[in-house]
Structures are given as structure tokens and as C-alpha cells.
Amino acid sequence: MKRAIVFGATGGIGQAICRELALSGWSLYLHYNTKKEQAEQLAQELFAKYPELDFMPIQLNFATSDQELTSFVNSLLPVNAAIFAQGITNYGFLGDEKLTNISQVININLATPIKLTKLLEPQLMKQSFSRIVYLGSVYGGAGSALESVYSGTKSGLSRFAQAYAREVASNNLTVNVIAPGAVKTQMNSIFSQATIEEVQEEIPAGRWAQGEDISYWVKTILNPRSSYLTGQTIYVTGGWLL
């Protein structure tokens, strides 16, 4: 049985990834932090459609201790793939940011995913093929003013994936980043309609992405035939910025 863990499964992109992978025959751990009800509803929805597969909500706070992270990973059944779709940002000038907010963005977007990758490595190495996919951002390649810390974390994911992929390539473990542009998700709901339309006019494809535009590429990377693609950042932006 193919099994993946999707971190941030209750987010807009995370839910699209779960639905795409379930359709492709993957059993899933559905990670959440506080949105237990949403994770359970998603699990019920997927199980109703694919009763031959397993869908298990699982809770983890990315701000927890290293010991708790270790215990979390040790509690998992073997997985073939880990998808890191969680992420947060704060909008504003760096000089106005609280140090605690800076630490939180770095921890959730970059530091804890790296720690979890290290902890998951032994079981991923045991599989005939295994995959790690991080959700980066177009701002990891073209930094965004007012999101400098966020941009730094997403750029860091790309460089980490590039380096780490070289360490594990001989073990049939690939490591890649999918970097979306502007996606219609809850995280972007703070923008006014005028701002949304202004951004849309800048996108050559003429629209914001949907979650399915991103989940397609996650599914493709998880295909066993994608074994020669590793260490890459794939920008899915509709031609925007990069």
C-alpha cells in the first residue's frame, strides 16, 4: 500500500493535494494542528469515495519540542512520501515585526520541516521508492517586500532541497519543491477585491491558480516514473514574476 503524510492537510492547497493523491490510490495521514474537525471531515469524505484506502487525521503542533517531533514520527506507520503543504506569513515591514512572529514563521515554514525530514529519513529509505515534496513559493525566487521573512524561508526550502537531494539520490528518495504563484486560498483572503484583480492583471495566464493547479504537480512527482527529477524547484505561477 502506498502511504503519504500530508502536512497542512486542512489548508486550501493541502486539501487539493489530499483529494488528488487519494484519487491516485494513496492512503494518507492528514496532518492538522488546530483544525481537527476539518481534518476528520476530509477523512470521512475520502473514505466514502475510496473505502479500500486508509485516511487518518493526525495532530502535530510545529512549535513543539524535538522530543515530541521524534515521538510523532515514531508513531507513524511506514510512509512512501511526505508532502509539506503547511505555511504561514505575516504582512508588514521587517522593522515592525515582533521577534516572536519572526521565529514562528521560520519555525513553521523551514526549521520544523527540516527536522521532520531528518526524522522521516530512515523509514523513507526503506521503501522501493520514496518522495519528499515541499510547498515553496514564487517569493522564494523573487522576494516580496512586506514578506521578507516568508520569502527567506521559502528560498531556504529550495536550497535545502537542492542540497539534501544530492545526499539521498542513490537511495531512490527524491526531494523537490513545488513553488506556487498566486493561489486562491484562505491565506490570501485578507486582500481586497481590488488587490486581487490588480494581481490577476499581472499574471500572464490571466487568473489566480486553483489548488488543483498545484496538486497536479505533487501527484506527478509522486509517480514512480518521476525518479530522475530531484533537487528541483518547479515554479507553478502562470508566468507571473519569474
TrEMBL record:
This is 3-oxoacyl-[acyl-carrier protein] reductase. Signal peptide: none annotated. GO terms for biological process: monocarboxylic acid metabolic process. Belongs to the short-chain dehydrogenases/reductases (SDR) family. It comes from the Bacteria. It comes from Lactobacillus kefiranofaciens.
